[in-house]
Amino acid sequence: MKTLTFFATIFMFLAPMLSTCSGENAEPSAVTDNANTTTTTTTTINVHFVDSAPDMFILENNGTCDLSESYFFIDFSNTAGHLYFDTDPSDGSHMSAPFTAVHGQIALAESSVYDGDESLIMRIAELGAGESAVFTIDVDGFDDYRVAADHLDGGVIGIITAEDDALHRTTFANSSTASLSVNCTE
User: Fold this and answer.
1) Among 9, 118, 122, 133, who pairs with 77 as Cys (CB 3.0-4.6 Å)?
2) C-alpha–C-alpha distance, residues 172 and 118, integer Å
3) What class has domain 2-17+43-185?
4) 10 Å Cβ neighbour count for 33?
């Protein structure tokens, strides 16, 4: 049920961007507009999870173009470690922490992430080439408050950019880092 709610929420926030969807597998091309030449290329967004107190996510734009007005999501509903966000200190858990934007032009797309949620949607106003964005939030598993790389297996991350209106997604696979390839314009 949470997965259905998660995807319904994504659609609600992203429907205006998807209305002119050109497809996830659009080929890079060159478009000439007056005297300016614009080239569509692919950039890589690396997402690193750091098990700390509180837990940290680092998004790095390792490409040559800026991303703006994008939506990033995390879905832990199918993770090997049965992960969830632990945001309520009153539940007696080891450590809890709400979503906090530490660095970069990022914010939650929803009003908050509630204790026990398995997903979040975040708006990225701008993530320039070579720049990073960082946020913290506590992540726990139903069996353990420590999160190892293999606990993330099956966790989905994704991004929809204003550049190409396509959903780009991948999963964590026995690593605390996952990479997304995203079309962008230079």
Assistant:
1) 118
2) 15
3) mainly beta
4) 7
Distance between CA atoms of residues 85 and 97, nearest Å = 9
Q: Where are the alpha helices (DSSP H) in the chain?
A: 2-18
CA-wise closest residue to 65 among 21, 126, 17, 121: 126
Tell me how far apart the 2 most distant CA atoms of the chain are, in Å.
63
pTM attached to this predicted model: 0.78
pLDDT tens digits for 97-122?
A: 999 999 999 999 988 899 999 999 99
DSSP E strands, 28-166? 30-33, 36-50, 56-61, 67-75, 83-85, 100-103, 105-108, 119-127, 132-136, 139-141, 156-160
